[in-house]
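Take a look at my tokenised protein here and describe the backbone shape.
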Amino acid sequence: MALNPSRFRPAWWLPAAHLQTIYPALLGHLPPVTLQRERLELADGDFMELGWMPPHQPEAPVVMLIHGLGGGAASHYVRLLLPLLQQQGYQGLLLALRGSGPEPNRQQRSYHSGASEDLAAVLAILKARQTLPQAIIGVSLGGNLLLKYLGEAAGDDALNGLRTAVAVSVPFHLQDCSQRLTHGFSGLYGRYILKDLRRLLRAKLARCGNPFGIDPERIRTLRQFDEEVTAPVNGFRDAEDYYRRCSSRPFLAAIRTPTLILHDPHDPFMTPRTVPEAEALGPGVTLELCKGAGHVGFVSGGWPWKPDYWLGQRIPEWLSQQGLHPIRPISAAGHENRPDQTPAAAHD
């Protein structure tokens, strides 16, 4: 285990955590990605979707990316990391969590912060056909889900073949994050997220019915959403039970897989007390504290018209340090779209 300072230095023109959070999400101007979609049928009758970064590289190590809340192929970190990893000689893969793909899932439930059983199901399918990822990157909610899974599966044969993991801007303690997103400027993020969640909820209720008697219009906070939607739909007693059982922090001590966590101690989605102490980290965990990085920001560079997205440096560096070596990088021409490729869905 290790708790280390980071080499990250925020851009002088984005000196505050809020600016770091907002800039790449709204103003980053990263080009869209084109993915080859694949549906995986699950044992419970539902499905999840994968998005493979073209061109397919069967000999390359597979690196899976798990998005955050409301995220997907249009998220700035997906548009940054998947093309970069592909160009460097890895096979990039996006896991669209249950209900987040371009086509609605079949069941009442969708993904949530602790749905590690869904990740386990996908990895079992990929392992059976010998395409198990050698590395997994989880961002925000996806990072929480990933860390929970790694702690639960420590010592399990299911992890055979998984060499390393990276988690970015993780909400280690869900209740703290829910509270933070109701106060001050951070409340703006909370209201934005809630607006999107209510939109998705209305569509879900229209398709699947409303056996829990949920009224989207009376939900005013993220905690109320978790109390009235997330908890009952997913079998938790209440929001507090959901937060307690699904926060990744209690699972960190069990993690043995070499895992890098990149986190700003002043991430505006949470509070400094959310950050785990060194004693809470498992033997495989390295936590790098990146002051001034914001929530999934990590923008450095000298000029606003030429930003440097630091995650695109540190993550490949970590993969190499863990012995995950790419095949020879493909040429830029290899990224040209082919007729059998379909544009990624533009959901955030």
User: Anything to note?
Assistant: The radius of gyration is 19 Å. The first strand starts at residue 2 and ends at 5.
